């Protein structure tokens, strides 16, 4: 089987992998420059870079590359380390480049108003695969969202039963009403999505957080929720808000370790909420 065809297949199936390529050779090695080995997320491999201990170490590093989603270069001095002398190597040095093979970054946008319209365009340009969900057919349409891979015009509850976000997915909630925001957030925090964002004021998000925790949803479920959504760049217009959200999506995707402080936002807001009057009711849905 061709390695490149298998890479395409993995991505289409929403799976992960890591591709190892020999990029530099000095001396004699048991393979050839540009030799490749694909490590799948189930641990199976396709191709070879020479076998032996080198391949075993590359396999282990490939697993780490899949997890971190960051490329890595490995250097092996075969003639200086006796553990590589197993009859499979001839002495020499080689460098192997490991790159993650990741499924498409899918972004589910709940809501099809002005913010969603601009977010779909900007996030699409940034490489996200867009799915729009709204219960209004005149808003959730191909005419408004030509760049989206999918446009779902049906009741939110019905749509949510048919969507199964994975660890590479993101969810942004920008509906027209607080009640819809809350029921979508209730579902979203129980999915495997890596990123969940909800638009709204600080008071609104505290109120919804309180309500959902009273329902019994564990607090740790909210650790990856970004609300108010988007990086704080002073955004005001729908276009600016879409830029702020896309920037945060990119940060979560490319530099998750830098996004972690914001992911615990709900926990920090809970402490702030204790200073406010208790028993705040969920706001009525916007008309």
Describe the protein.
The chain has 287 residues and is α/β, with parallel strands linked by helices. It folds into two domains: 3-101, no CATH class; 106-273, Rossmann fold, CATH 3.40.50.720. Helix content is 36%, strand content 21%. It contains nine helices and eleven strands. It has helices at 3-12, 52-68, 114-125, 156-161, 178-188, 202-214, 238-254, 256-263, 265-273, and strands at 17-27, 36-40, 45-47, 72-77, 92-101, 106-110, 129-134, 150-153, 170-173, 195-198, 225-226. The strands form two sheets. A six-stranded parallel beta sheet has the order 8-7-6-9-10-11, with helices on both faces. Helix 3 packs across helix 7. It is elongated, with a radius of gyration of 23 Å. It starts with a helix and ends in a 14-residue tail after the last helix. Mean pLDDT is 84; it is low at 259-265 and 275-287.
Q: How large is the radius of gyration?
A: 23 Å
Would you identify the CATH architecture of the largest domain?
3-Layer(aba) Sandwich
Number of strands: 11
CATH topology of the largest domain: Rossmann fold
H/E order of the elements?
A: HEEEHEEEHEEHEHEHEHHH
Shape: elongated
Average pLDDT works out at 84
The CATH C-level class name of the largest domain = Alpha Beta
Strand order of the largest sheet: 8-7-6-9-10-11
Oligomer: single chain
Spans of at least 5 consecutive residues whose pLDDT stays below 50 are 259-265, 275-287
Tell me what portion of residues adopts beta-strand conformation: 15-25%
The structural class is: alpha/beta
Structural domain count: 2
Q: Distance N terminus to C terminus?
A: 57 Å
In which range does the helix fraction lie? 25-40%
Could you give a short account of the major beta sheet?
6 strands, parallel
């Amino acid at each position: 089987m061709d390695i490149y065809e298998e890479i395409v297949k993995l991505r289409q199936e929403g799976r992960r992998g890591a591709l190892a390529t020999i990029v530099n050779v000095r001396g004699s090695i048991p393979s050839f420059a540009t030799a490749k080995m694909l490590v799948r997320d189930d641990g199976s491999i396709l191709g070879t870079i020479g076998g032996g201990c080198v391949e075993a170490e590359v396999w282990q590093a490939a697993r780490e590359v899949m997890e971190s989603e960051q490329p890595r270069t490995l250097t092996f001095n075969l003639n200086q380390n006796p553990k590589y002398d197993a009859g499979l190597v001839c002495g020499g040095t080689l460098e192997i480049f490991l790159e993650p093979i990741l499924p498409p970054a899918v972004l589910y946008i709940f809501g099809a108003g002005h913010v969603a319209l601009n977010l779909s365009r900007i996030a699409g340009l940034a490489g996200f695969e867009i799915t729009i969900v709204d219960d209004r057919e005149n808003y959730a349409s191909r005419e408004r969202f030509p760049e989206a891979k999918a446009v779902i015009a049906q009741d939110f509850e019905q749509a949510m039963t048919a969507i199964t976000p994975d660890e590479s997915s993101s969810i942004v909630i920008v509906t027209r009403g607080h009640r819809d925001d809350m029921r979508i957030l209730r579902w979203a925090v129980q999915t495997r999505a890596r990123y969940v964002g909800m638009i709204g004021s600080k008071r609104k998000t505290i109120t919804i957080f309180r309500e959902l925790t009273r329902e019994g949803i564990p607090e740790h479920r909210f650790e990856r929720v970004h609300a108010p959504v988007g990086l704080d760049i002073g955004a005001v217009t729908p276009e600016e808000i879409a830029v702020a959200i896309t920037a945060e999506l990119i940060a979560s995707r490319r530099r998750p370790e830098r996004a972690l402080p914001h992911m615990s936002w709900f926990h920090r807001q809970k402490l702030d909420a204790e200073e406010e009057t208790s028993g705040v009711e969920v706001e009525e849905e916007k008309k």
